[in-house]
Amino acid sequence: MDYKYKFSVVIPVYNVEGYLAETLDSVIGQSIGFENNIQIILVNDGSPDDSEKICLEYAKKYPDNILYLKQENKGVSAARNYGMQYVEGKYVNFLDSDDKWTSGSFQAVYDFFEKRRDKIDLVACPQKFFEARDDYHWLFFKYEQGSRIIDVLEKYNYVQMHVTASFVKAVSTPINPNAKDFSTKTTANKKVCDMLGPYVHGSTTIAKLPAALWGLLKINITLSNTTSINTKSIRSIPMLP
Question: Could you tell me the pTM of the whole model?
Answer without folding.
Answer: 0.76
